[in-house]
């Protein structure tokens, strides 16, 4: 991955911008926070405003302010410097994010993965990116996915791989995909966008990526990860034995066929567990399933320490 000598991206190198040590990169986290929208209609309006020609001149002032700040770039400070009202922050944040991505010396989805990304299915894209992206690109996409995933959760748009039942949700999602695809993907570093023949595949891959991160953030918000961590630290109480023999058993040699001291024969039925024991067993089984799912998400992104066996990638319905 090549980087320009001057840092190239708002005077901040990609490595510095996307360093895992920042966790998450401050500028990306700030952009996600400023897109403080709560409905699909608001998101669609902000995307329309971000693409409007009237935004270009003030956006230049915002980007100049970001460049002047260097490594400590703050979008909120840049908006204030350019006299942009904070109620316009979502549109300017989206526009700045798109420009930030387009100015990368190499796209976020690196050029050597371009064809593979276009061909990836809904279940194979995330593993592909985790295994083959350079660390700075992986960290940048992880932080960007977290920021946009939070926006999609707040606006009620979570399923990003197939059309939603709500028309407003689908309109906002299509607008987001249309804007993001050429910012994330291009076949060559100096290519001017995505070839028309490959545009549909690029937008489909962008939907897969958005859906993955939206579901990941939704999972976090439901407390699944916390439940898994709590379950891993707790051990079930030993089952208490309620039914005991009413009379002592003589110490005789065990034989088959019944009688005191005998072993149960294959034809003999053993006492069935009580209904309360069965209920507790079922609850523990469901907890184990939830734990496995939560641990899967946590392991994929390095959020749980310890060496555990992989349980695969999340199953998603196309």
Quick summary of this structure?
The protein is mainly alpha-helical. The protein contains 13 helices and no strands.
List the helices and strands and how they pair.
Elements: H1 14-17, H2 26-34, H3 40-50, H4 56-69, H5 75-81, H6 89-102, H7 114-119, H8 125-132, H9 135-154, H10 167-184, H11 199-221, H12 224-233, H13 275-300
Helix pairs in contact: 2-6, 2-9, 3-6, 3-10, 4-5, 6-10, 9-11, 10-11, 12-13
Description:
The chain has 318 residues and is mainly α. The chain has 2 domains: 14-222, Rho GTPase activation protein (Phosphatidylinositol 3-kinase, Chain A, Orthogonal Bundle); 223-233 and 281-310, no CATH class. The protein has 13 helices and no strands. The relative contact order is 0.11. Mean pLDDT is 73; it is low at 1-9, 238-242, 247-273, 281-294 and 301-318.
């Amino acid at each position: 991955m090549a980087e320009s000598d001057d840092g190239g991206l708002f005077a901040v190198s990609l490595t510095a911008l996307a360093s895992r040590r920042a966790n998450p990169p401050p500028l990306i986290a700030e952009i996600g926070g400023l897109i403080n929208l709560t409905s699909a209609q608001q998101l669609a309006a902000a995307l329309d405003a971000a693409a409007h020609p009237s935004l270009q001149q003030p956006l230049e002032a915002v980007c100049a302010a970001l460049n002047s700040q260097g490594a400590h770039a703050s979008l909120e400070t840049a908006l204030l410097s350019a006299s942009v009202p904070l109620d316009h922050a979502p549109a300017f944040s989206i526009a700045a994010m798109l420009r930030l991505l387009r100015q990368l010396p190499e796209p976020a989805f690196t050029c050597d993965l371009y064809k593979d990304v276009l061909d990836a299915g809904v279940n194979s894209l995330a593993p592909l990116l985790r295994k083959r992206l350079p660390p700075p690109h992986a960290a940048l996409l992880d932080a960007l996915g977290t920021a946009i995933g939070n926006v999609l959760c707040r606006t009620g748009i979570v399923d990003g791989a197939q059309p939603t039942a709500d028309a407003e949700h689908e309109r906002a999602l299509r607008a987001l995909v249309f804007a993001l695809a050429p910012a994330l993907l291009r076949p060559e570093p100096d290519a001017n966008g995505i070839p028309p023949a490959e545009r549909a595949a690029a937008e489909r891959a962008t939907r897969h990526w958005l859906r993955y991160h939206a579901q990941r953030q939704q999972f976090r918000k439901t407390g699944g990860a916390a439940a898994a961590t709590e379950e891993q630290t707790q051990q079930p109480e030993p089952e208490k034995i309620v039914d005991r023999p009413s009379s002592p058993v003589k110490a005789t040699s065990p034989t088959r066929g019944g009688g005191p001291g005998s072993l149960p024969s294959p034809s003999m039925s053993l006492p069935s567990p009580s209904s309360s024991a069965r209920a507790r067993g079922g609850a523990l089984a469901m907890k184990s399933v939830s734990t496995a799912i939560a641990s899967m998400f946590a392991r994929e992104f390095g959020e749980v320490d310890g060496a555990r066996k992989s349980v695969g990638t999340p199953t998603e319905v196309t």
